[in-house]
């Protein structure tokens, strides 16, 4: 599964546009503050030109926050001797605070601490110029320090949010990899275990009768060949699926209940006759449900062939809405403990992943039974 995180509104704006917007907005804001400030202290273009020049380092903030911060810091120091209106001084300080936020959001804690300390010193020195008396100096200094504090907290919060989001994406990717590994392990186990069990039994039969009953030995070899080819084809399908990128459409068919007859034939070749009963009207199943149903039956038959020591078993498939039911039972010696292998846990995982459940254990009348319930989607039900 693929984890998606909504993109912030700012992320939808091309990165190349942001610096130019900031560059245009900054001198405009300064011009407005000058217009409503003490006009006598401003000499028109002679003053606005230095303001524009001192704003240029703002372009560097998105790509080189530290360099942009130093440039704007020079602007604060360079603009102060012009003794422009206090509103302009505050505008310059606000832009420096934005640079502090940029550094806090994108750089290390050491760099952030240096930027915060330098901004405090620079704005504290500027406050002595903009304040006309001691009381005003304290008020201006407190306002400037609060601006730096808010910028630092805001930038730190943005950095923590970004780090948290990155951690979530990393964990989601790791979980997806783990889930895929488990799925591949289940598929390989189900594909190989059944066929290897059949091959082992038929090889033993062929070895015992090769001298006395060559025809039976030939049948055993034919069964081994068929099982081997089917396993090889299944492994090839798995490898093709693994090599296929997410953008490519699936071109290989997955196993499903349509192949149940072939599975029953292979099981009978291993010495266990399987009787199949269908309850309800068969219908086309979703691929994941179809595959899970087939693999559960396949693993149940594999366990019967290996451990039940019986010649007969029963497969019941129920299409009663709103779920698909599967029961595989035998009258053998009771099967195996669910803790001795991966087969039963794998079957249970397949059912659980689809929102169903599976039970496996000895029957009261003898033998072993696997019972699974797989929910069907609403449109199927």
From TrEMBL:
SMART domains assigned: HATPase_c (SM00387)
Reactions listed under catalytic activity: ATP + protein L-histidine = ADP + protein N-phospho-L-histidine
CDD domains: HATPase_UhpB-NarQ-NarX-like
Top EC class, one word: transferase
EC number per UniProt: 2.7.13.3
Gene3D superfamilies for the chain: 1.20.5.1930, Histidine kinase-like ATPase, C-terminal domain
MF terms (GO), sorted A to Z: ATP binding; phosphorelay sensor kinase activity; protein dimerization activity
Any Gene Ontology CC annotation: membrane
Transmembrane portions of the chain: 20-39, 51-78, 110-131, 137-158
Domain Histidine kinase/HSP90-like ATPase: 288-378
Keywords, comma-separated and alphabetical: ATP-binding, Kinase, Membrane, Nucleotide-binding, Phosphoprotein, Transferase, Transmembrane, Transmembrane helix, Two-component regulatory system
Pfam family, one: HATPase_c
UniProt-listed PANTHER family: NITRATE/NITRITE SENSOR PROTEIN NARX-RELATED, NITRATE_NITRITE SENSOR PROTEIN NARQ
Name of the protein: histidine kinase
């Amino acid at each position: 599964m693929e984890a998606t995180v909504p993109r912030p509104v700012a992320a939808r704006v091309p990165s190349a546009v942001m610096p130019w917007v900031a560059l245009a907005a900054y001198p405009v804001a300064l011009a407005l503050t000058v217009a409503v400030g003490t006009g006598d202290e401003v000499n028109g273009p002679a003053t606005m030109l230095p303001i524009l020049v001192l704003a240029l380092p703002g372009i560097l903030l998105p790509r080189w926050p530290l360099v942009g911060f130093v440039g704007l810091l020079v602007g604060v120091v360079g603009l102060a001797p012009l003794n422009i209106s206090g509103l302009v001084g505050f505008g310059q300080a606000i832009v420096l605070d934005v640079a502090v936020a940029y550094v806090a959001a994108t750089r290390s804690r050491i760099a952030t601490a240096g930027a915060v300390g330098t901004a405090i010193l620079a704005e504290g020195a500027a406050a002595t110029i903009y304040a006309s008396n001691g009381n005003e100096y304290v008020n201006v200094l407190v306002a400037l320090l609060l601006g730096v504090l808010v910028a630092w907290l805001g930038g730190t919060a943005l950095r923590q949010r970004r780090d948290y989001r990155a951690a979530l994406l990393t964990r989601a990717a790791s979980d997806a990899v783990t889930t895929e590994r488990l799925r591949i392990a289940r598929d390989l186990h189900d594909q190989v275990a059944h066929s290897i069990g059949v091959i082992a039994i038929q090889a033993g039969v062929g070895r015992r009768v090769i001298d006395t009953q060559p025809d039976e030995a030939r049948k055993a070899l034919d069964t081994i060949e068929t099982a081997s080819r089917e396993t090889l084809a299944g492994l090839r399908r798995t490898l093709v699926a693994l090599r296929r990128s997410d953008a490519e459409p699936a071109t290989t068919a997955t196993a499903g209940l349509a192949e149940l007859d072939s599975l029953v034939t292979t099981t009978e070749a291993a010495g266990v006759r399987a009787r199949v009963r269908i309850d309800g009207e068969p219908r086309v199943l979703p691929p994941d449900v179809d595959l899970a149903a087939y693999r559960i039956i396949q693993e149940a038959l594999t366990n019967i062939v290996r451990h039940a020591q019986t010649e007969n078993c029963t497969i019941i498939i129920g299409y009663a809405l709103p779920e698909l039911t599967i029961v595989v039972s035998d009258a053998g010696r009771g099967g195996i403990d669910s803790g001795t292998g991966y087969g039963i846990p794998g079957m249970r995982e397949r059912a659980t992943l689809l929102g169903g459940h599976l039970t496996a254990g000895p029957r009261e009348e003898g033998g072993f039974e696997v019972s699974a319930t797989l929910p069907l989607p609403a449109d199927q039900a």
